[in-house]
Design a protein that fits this description.
By secondary structure, the chain is an alpha/beta fold. It has two domains: 132 residues, Rossmann fold, CATH 3.40.50.1970; 29 residues. Helices cover 51% and strands 16% of the residues. The protein contains six helices and five strands; from the N terminus they run βαβαβαβαβαα. It has a five-stranded parallel β-sheet with strand order 2-1-3-4-5. It starts with a strand and ends with a helix. Bound molecules: 5-O-phosphono-beta-D-ribofuranose (RP5). The site of 5-O-phosphono-beta-D-ribofuranose has 10 residues, from loops.
């Protein structure tokens, strides 16, 4: 059995600046990942082949990012029963509102866990994948808790700095 990994798919290389946040979070948690440009519309057969193969090779979670008429996450969710996280990319004249609705409005029975538009969503996709893996992995669960505690400490430090400035 090959090593478990997360697959990060994006509809275009133009999505990479947004999706860098996802890759950074996965690296923080030492999660093995594959990143790939593949499109629901432009390369549907290659997308299907990759998802089928990735699942067989041990992919635990798919993270799919796309902008405009963003059907990548939904198309992937139709192929696999692994959890699929969708990231609506904030590009084009509608700035990701189109991608949000295209990603989130899945028919019953084929869910896509859709995160926020843009880089905050991309970051959360990484954290959500870590939390999904943590369900069956105590070390990952501890790492997620530690990261959450660090984030709380950072907010408290910001507040302390604000109070010092106001004093
Ligand atoms: C989507 O169309 C891609 O995910 C990207 O967000 C958007 C624009 O793609 P490019 O024209 O930059 O390749 O399919």
């Amino acid at each position: 059995m090959s090593k478990p990994f997360v697959a990060v798919l994006m509809g275009s290389d133009s999505d990479l600046p947004t999706m860098q946040s996802t890759l950074d979070v996965l690296k923080t948690f030492n999660i093995t990942f594959e990143a790939k440009v593949t499109s629901a519309h432009r390369t549907p057969a290659a997308t299907h082949a990759y998802v089928t193969d990735a699942e067989a090779r041990g992919c635990k979670v798919f993270i799919c990012a796309a902008g405009l008429a963003a059907h990548l996450a939904g198309a992937v969710a139709g192929i696999t029963t692994r959890p699929v996280i969708g990231v609506p990319v904030d590009c084009g004249p509608l700035q990701g509102h189109d991608a949000l609705l295209s990603t989130v409005m899945m028919p019953g029975g084929v869910p896509v866990a859709t995160v926020a538009i843009g880089s905050a969503g991309a970051k959360n996709a990484g954290y959500l994948a870590a939390q999904m893996l943590a369900v069956g992995d105590d070390a990952m669960a501890a790492a997620v808790k530690e990261e959450r505690a660090k984030s709380a400490e950072a907010v408290q430090a910001k507040d302390a700095a604000l109070q010092a400035k106001l004093a």
